[in-house]
């Protein structure tokens, strides 16, 4: 029998478990350990609440979770309740599928003023992550600045713009919906340190900005390269840039009815955030591109008045004591997923925060191939009973998948009209509902 512990119950964790089932059939026992009492990681806490069709992939993970040889072990923190060393003593392979839940740091003066948030915190707040339920972002100002030209910047801009009615059918948590409804926002400026041809935004997500009830996107024609240059882009990027061109052509008359303008400010690198005890403005420097398409400052700076700054500049994997880490890239040091003998990483923890949810599927299958090659038939480790004995001795209250199903049932039962669920945002409430 082979015993595998997977740390993290997001997409990378469940695809790895699925791969292990396929590879080893009945000859494997997989424990998926998560620090939270609820599964699915990024699907629950990262994917935007108004993108329910993407969240539906959790149905596939549930099939894996409900089989005999895979087990969800929730409410167990690796590094506190059990160490990596202990897990390595109990399992043939330990696979870190911990994702990249921490923000890449916005390293500019004033970056820690009240009113500056990383996207992990802001997204976590509207998605009901227990760590960020008490965030209380100030939405009483007229102008919000968003830093970054990726899909998370788009998610944040869209969520800040939607009306209550547009959130129908979403599972945005009520504490966020209620505050967003009273928001005074009139302008959202998305800052890109490079140009329209260097965005990391995908066409579907960009296109959504053109169909908002009370907001409309604004692009300055002068920022766009010659149309002919779009031919050099790969097809997805070309579509994205076509959306930007459409935004630049929106007539002023159309804007008159809209309360919120979503401004794309390209070639604008953040220099510092200023304010008296809280955010009042962000100072940016005009940039240009060098031959390698990197942004270079021109020395010209200007200030954008704003009361909140949300930095959407990418994520990083939290390090774990004793596990080799690649600081520059914010992920575990690994060679094709192998960290140390018996210790592996997969998904964003392996390659950094890039790609779609589906990218984690081949990643999961590849890591299980490596595990299979390394562990053979297994080494007589104890696996599950050993972990259970250890956690019981330490008084850790484990949340099982069947407990999660009760939590889910309770969340569905207390949903707003038209919403799929109302998430619990406190760990104690989750545990109480699962008990
Ligand atoms: P991302 O795609 O890596 O974009 C990060 C952006 O931040 C880039 O535009 C980058 O600009 C900019 N940036 C980085 N450091 C900066 C700095 N110091 N100052 C100013 N700008 C800076 O990251 P993300 O938006 O967090 O997305 C993470 C992953 O999740 C991506 O693969 C994304 O596609 C995926 N995602 C997908 C969806 C969806 O499909 N609906 C939704 C959300 C997220 P440079 O290019 O100049 O470095």
UniProtKB/TrEMBL annotation:
It comes from the Bacteria. Keywords: FAD, Flavoprotein, NADP, Oxidoreductase. FAD binds at residues 12, 42, 78, 348, 355-357. NADP(+) binds at residues 149-152, 193-194, 205, 355. GO terms for molecular function: oxidoreductase activity. Transmembrane segments: none annotated. Its cofactor is FAD. This is Pyridine nucleotide-disulfide oxidoreductase. The lineage of its organism: Bacteria, Pseudomonadati, Pseudomonadota, Alphaproteobacteria, Sphingomonadales.
